[in-house]
Amino acid sequence: MIRHYGRDHRYSIDERGAFVYESKTYRRGPHVYLQTCNRVEIYSGDGDTPRHIARHLFRVTAGLESRLIGERHIQGQVKRAYTEAILTGTISSGLHRLFQEALRVGKTVRNQTGISTGAVSYSNAVMELLRRELVDLSSPLRVLIVGVNRTTETIAKQLIKAGCEYLTIANRTLERAQCIAGSLNCNVLSLDHLNTGLATYDVVICATSSERPVIFQSMLPHDKPLLIVDLAVPRDVEHSVADMCNVNLFNVSDVESQIDQNLTARKAEIRCAESIISEAAAAFALSTVRKESSVC
After folding, report:
1. CATH number given to 122-259
2. What would the pLDDT profile of 119-175 be if each residue is shown by its tens digit?
3. Which CATH architecture has domain 3-117+269-295?
4. Alpha helix (H) ranges present in the chain?
5. For burial by CB atoms within 10 Å, which of 92, 164, 216, 233 has the most?
6. Model-level pTM greater than 0.70?
């Protein structure tokens, strides 16, 4: 029997962060571990998949469970989680079937509806936030991105396109930071030097996979304005930083709230997407029954 455990954007940042630690309990035996900016989920076990779990994963992959309805990144994130399970040997035949079908359904929903038309992303929302708070991104700002992943790479590219002249990328593994920095002609910084480097920046955007904060109040200047956008779950920035008078701190919940303003048009496509998913979940459950009957 396939089982599901998870926390998404309907839970607080701290609740989602706590589940990252708890999830180790469920990651035994066959499983697929899916972690994104706003969700942590584990699908585990083998055999048949209850319809409500199949339907949930289909909705997740199609972007209907995302804070950004119809967002495109989740399809790739589900595929990477599935591929990682294959590479690490934690996949089962039941999970194989479930995730292959989920990826097919996600693609079908996007091809047959307008659910992803004009869809925004976390990177776009961050850029909107920066423009709102800073007005001109091409002014002589010093920007630091902490953590290398698809979202931060996209933000880096958008910053350069917007005219940002001084951009630094910091990461635990310098080679990963250098891969992006080389193509964008920007600087790199080791996280080991983060403590002494933060004082020179005007904007910090962080999204690491660390289980604990990497930026603390003691590391930050008290004599100059600083804008920080923390996209990480659990938090990358110590909670007390929000109390600093010179620091304007935004977290992933703030970004998600801004995203809500851009969802109205796509909501009209939800009913059609739901219909495709319901039919697919029913067909998947029926195919499972037939497969088990043929085995018997």
Report:
1. 3.40.50.720
2. 567 898 899 899 889 867 778 889 999 999 989 999 999 999 999 989 999 998 888
3. 2-Layer Sandwich (3.30)
4. 13-22, 51-62, 73-88, 93-112, 122-134, 150-161, 174-184, 194-197, 252-259, 264-267, 270-295
5. 233
6. no
